[in-house]
Amino acid sequence: MPNSSRETKMGEETHKIEIELDQDLADELKNVLLHAASNYGIMIQSRQKSKNKLTPQQVGELRQRAQVLRTVADRIEEIEIARGWIDGGGDE
């Protein structure tokens, strides 16, 4: 069962969740998060081309949500690299 806690940071509520990841779960979770972040971008583009356009505030909120998902995916990748599950790339 994941451990979780809540914190308030700069006026916003944040959540910390601790879970045990194996390599397969880490890969799958990272892929799901990146796919969801991509879907936010697609939604923004399609709505801006339609008659029912998003407001600038809605666009900002969706971009912020996508960034949070990408940040979590990046953190999972850092964990994978630290555990030696994947090569971090970079200069060799």
The portion of residues forming beta strands comes to 15-25%
Order of helices and strands: EEHH
Number of strands: 2
* Uncertain ranges: none
Structural category: alpha+beta
Give the overall silhouette.
elongated
What distance lies between the first and last C-alpha atoms, to the nearest angstrom? 39 Å
Major sheet details: 2 strands, antiparallel
In the sheet with the most strands, the strands line up as: 1-2
Instruction: Provide the helix percentage.
Output: 55-70%
Number of helices: 2
Rounded radius of gyration (Å): 16 Å
Task: Provide mean pLDDT, rounded.
Answer: 84
At a glance:
59% of the residues lie in helices and 15% in strands. By secondary structure, it is an alpha+beta fold.
Textual characterization of the structure:
The chain has helices at residues 23-49, 56-82; strands spanning 3-9, 12-18. It is elongated, with a radius of gyration of 16 Å. Helices cover 59% and strands 15% of the residues. The protein has two helices and two strands; from the N terminus they run E-E-H-H. The longest helix has 27 residues, at 23-49. Strands 1-2 form a two-stranded antiparallel sheet. The chain is an alpha+beta fold and 92 residues long. The model has no long low-confidence stretch (mean pLDDT 84).
